[in-house]
Amino acid sequence: MTTEVWPTAEELAAVIAQRITDKVAEVQREGRTPTIVLTGGTIAIDAYEQISGGDVDWTDVDFYWGDERFVPAGDADRNDRQAKDAFLDRLGVPADRIHAMPAADGGLAIGEAADRYAAELPGEPFDLVLLGVGPDGHIASLFPGHPQVHETKRLAVEVLDSPKPPPERISLTYPALRNAQSVWLIVAGEGKAEAVARAHADGTIEDTPASGVQGLAETVWLVDVPASALIVRR
Ligand SMILES: O=C1O[C@H](COP(=O)(O)O)[C@@H](O)[C@H](O)[C@H]1O
């Protein structure tokens, strides 16, 4: 695990945007179609807005999500809608490359929707999983003290009582999130400092779900100074 600290959230967002572009370029140079799991959250959206294109083919990237709010398609609360608005539409990513989680108005009960999404995931490891971290240490929609952190078989699960609204969500589980070459945890702001510090020290998946995900090749924390403030002092 490595941790890189950037002075401000603005600089961090710019770095994340460039790193995503570089990752896509790297995988495409290998002759493969990149598979990227997107996250929601403040710093992620700021980063997506700064992705400017670069020397890559954005029409040949498969995008998935680590979690989604189970609300109707197009709802402003949905992580897919926010990512589309921030960069996917602007860069011309075709609809068949956007693997959104089912929506609440899609005709499936939430548990069926989670299973349907699990069946849509690629068999090979993802190239990149991006994860925001909540002030409570949650990643995707795996929340402290919630049973989903102990899921070992299903790749996607329903969450009916998220402590952060909206209550109904779908989340990838650890078995899915860990099946990635690169996992990058992206975090900004002093409100996340306690969670970041726990994940770097004695945190468990019970109290700090962010401590429980590692990539097959790398696990990188990209944080700003306020979010990193408690790492070394504990
Ligand atoms: O609800 C969610 O929150 C987290 C973190 O969001 P933030 O605004 O505190 O940065 C995000 O990672 C997750 O995808 C999202 O559904």
Automatic annotation (TrEMBL):
Residues 8-221 form the Glucosamine/galactosamine-6-phosphate isomerase domain. The keyword Signal does not apply. It comes from the Bacteria. InterPro entries: 6-phosphogluconolactonase_DevB, 6PGL, Glc/Gal-6P_isomerase, NagB/RpiA_transferase-like. It catalyses: 6-phospho-D-glucono-1,5-lactone + H2O = 6-phospho-D-gluconate + H(+). Its EC number is 3.1.1.31. Pathway: Carbohydrate degradation; pentose phosphate pathway; D-ribulose 5-phosphate from D-glucose 6-phosphate (oxidative stage): step 2/3. Keywords: Hydrolase. It is an enzyme of class 3 (hydrolase). One of its GO terms (molecular function) is 6-phosphogluconolactonase activity. One of its GO terms (biological process) is pentose-phosphate shunt. Belongs to the glucosamine/galactosamine-6-phosphate isomerase family. 6-phosphogluconolactonase subfamily. Hydrolysis of 6-phosphogluconolactone to 6-phosphogluconate. This is 6-phosphogluconolactonase. It comes from Aeromicrobium yanjiei.
